[in-house]
Amino acid sequence: MTVAVHGLLLAAGAGTRMGMPKALVEDQDGSWLRRSLQVLADGGCSGVTVVLGAALEEALPLLDGVAGAAGTTVQVVVAHEWAQGMSESLRAGLEALAPTAVPAALVTLVDLPDVTPEVVRRVAAAADGPAALARATYDGRPGHPVLLGRDHWAAICASVDGDSGARDYLAEHDARAVECGDLATGRDVDSR
After folding, report:
1. 6-179: CATH topology
2. Which of 23, 40, 139, 170 has minimal Cβ neighbours within 10 Å of its Cβ?
3. pTM score, two decimals?
4. Whole-angstrom distance, CA of residue 59 vs CA of residue 52
């Protein structure tokens, strides 16, 4: 049985290798921030939370009208300690979802421009309850999105540090691999 999944987009970093916050990057297909949110909405997420930090004031206007066609609401969370790394963004997002009834969060990054709604749907289909733990793989290489059932959130928040996010936790707890290499590369883009 598949359960409702809430999308969690991490977009708080300064993008030092990119030369600008990735939440502000645009390419020939438009804004990465807008596209990432729309991919989560179109992929079937029941709601979407975006975690912002660096360039907050510049990123907020980019959210206007996003995900409206899919009927998905977008909540903004600010990671005040975003400079400490991805772990702070993940922690801020999960802590914001903790008081809700959301059974599972599908976490992705703003710098994955080729991840599609089909990838989101495939990984989200692994949500069978609050104990779910899965991640997309691309030709066997672990990547995003990552599915985190509610039962894992407190332990993840307590264990993450720096810029590694939940990678070690997922490895230690045998997260289910969901192969998506036929749909995308899943590669993050760190430079222009």
Report:
1. Spore Coat Polysaccharide Biosynthesis Protein SpsA; Chain A (3.90.550)
2. 139
3. 0.93
4. 8
